[in-house]
Amino acid sequence: MSSESTAAVEAAFRRERAAVLATLIRQLGDFQPAEDALQEAFAAAIVAWERDGVPASPAAWITVTARRRAIDRLRRDRTLADRIERLKVLAERETAATEAEGPEEEPSAVPDDQLRLIFTCCHPALAMQARVALTLRTLGGLSTGEIARAFLVSETTMAQRLVRAKRKIAAAHIPYRVPSDEELPDLLGGVLAVLYLIFNEGWFASGGDRLVRGELCAEAIRLGRLLHGLMPDDPEVAGLLALMLLHDSRREARVDGHGELVLLDDQDRSLWDRGRIREGERLLEGAMRRRRPGRYQLQAAIAALHATAPSPQDTDHAQIAALYGELVRRAPSPVVEVNRAVALGRAEGPNAGLEVLEPLLRAGTLEGYAPLHVAHADLLDRAGETALAARAYERAAACAESSVTRTELQRRAAALA
Amino acid sequence: MPQYMMLIYTPNEGGPTPEEQQAEHPRWNAYTEALGEAGVMVAGDALEGIDTATTVSERDGETLLTDGPFAETKEGLAGYYLIDVPDLDAALKWAARIPSASYGSVEVRPVRVFPEA
User: Fold this and answer.
1) Is A76 on the interface with B (CB under 8 A)?
2) A79 to chain B: which residues are within 8 Å by CB?
């Protein structure tokens, strides 16, 4: 086998898989037969391209071959209730394709199909875990095994999760369409939540294979770019992509030589990826010009202020506190309040921050949330309340999730006591 | 078009009082009418309370009867609608408009289609 044609198949697989799959799902009306047909078409390509050379449009070749394989399968499969109807639709499409300029001229990917696929994979009638898995498997380039390792479940469990989700889409007739303008805001919010969850899962790796976890961030960004390409006018889509890029710019700096987390203030800023920061900033500026702010744009704006500050001291903490205030106003969240308290403490002094934390500490809803107590301890320390600060660090250590963090917090408590 | 069964569950305790249920009637009538006008209604009924239920099972050739529902749950099946709509989104929109959705819940299940013989 020539390595050239194998490489061509591999390249086509990586580049075109999601787009071709999206179109096939629409044409076949079901996920599983589309995936099976696509798999067969790629296998056929290895043989055919070796024999006849790589076609001018590999994606069109794959699409047409996959559709024909699907027709063959449908003819044989008598268990489907609506196979006659499906065969009719496919046969009509096949005739139309032949009567046109021949298969090579058929558009291989309809951009709207990928949007349809995104909205179906992220449909609110599917459990969040299922949405994440399905999005990564069908739109992303990860295998079932890779997704399983990233989410710390067995490959069998992940495979069952995917099968179940696809079965529900088919049996319950979850629609394969781009939502109407009126439904869009709600449903798009759900899609963005899935992408951000994938990113965060990779970013805050609490365990598992670090390499695969890193791929989750890369996949989330890739999917963010895809969605932004399909919906270039939506400011929140651009905002989320900017947010992920701005966070990701710190990838190299946030882990030290021993694989341990380095806090923002202690990071070597020369390791930050300037290209990603510039790209994130440009996206954010474009989004904000549309004057339709949202939670992702606000978070991206905060990340941008950190990313462009020359040092922790020279960061516009007042502006960051104001942006957190706007986030809380839109969607009240005690966790965001903690961040606002930290920023305010830096902008206006520790007492301003302590004032914001006071009601949160009294309410007790975040009692087991380590960052609350770390923020409290830091503010108390800077306000000169050393003994109280030591106690707050001890409380933080008690709810720390990793042993590395716990040891560090205990060390700080001891240093103050 | 696919059919969906909307199974209407209401709380067994702490739900609306008989007076409140009475007052709810016009809303149920309006809802059923809306389904009819949209041309999606196949069937629909309200059921008597779970205290009127008898559960039947057949074991080793013997018929067992139990006074009451199949399982003790917080919510009980109170009625159903069977509708004919283009997709799940349409079914979910109708389900959300069911008068008791604000204090109970509605389970939406696609009706199974068997392959041709």
Assistant:
1) no
2) 115
Q: Which residues of B touch A123 (CB under 8 A)?
A: 88
Give the pTM: 0.85
* Residues in chain B closer than 8 A to A83 (CB atoms): 115
Do the Cβ atoms of B112 and A171 come within 8 Å?
Answer: yes
Of A184, A214, A182, A210, which Cα lies nearest the Cα of A198? A214
- How many Å lie between the alpha carbon of B3 and the closest alpha carbon of chain A? 9
| Cross-sheet strand order for the sheet of B3-11 | B41-46, B75-84, B3-11, B105-110
Contacts 24+ apart (CB under 8 A), B94-97: B94/B6, B94/B35, B94/B40, B95/B6, B97/B31, B97/B34
Per-residue pLDDT in tens (0 to 9) along chain B, 117 residues: 899 999 999 999 888 998 999 999 999 999 999 999 999 999 999 999 888 999 999 999 999 999 988 888 899 999 999 999 999 999 999 999 999 999 999 999 999 988 765
Cα B8 from Cα A118, distance rounded (Å): 31
Which positions in chain B touch A174 (Cβ < 8 Å)?
Answer: 87-89
For β-strands B54-59 and B62-67, DSSP reports them as antiparallel
Pick from B87, B114, B116: CB nearest A175: B87
Query: ipTM of the predicted structure?
Result: 0.89
- Kindly determine whether residue A81 and residue B2, on different chains, have CB atoms separated by under 8 Å: no
Helix boundaries (H) for A79-143: 83-99, 111-121, 128-138
pLDDT interval class at A205 (50, 70, 90): low
Q: CA–CA separation, A250 vs A246, rounded Å?
A: 7
> What residue type is assigned to position B53 of the chain?
A
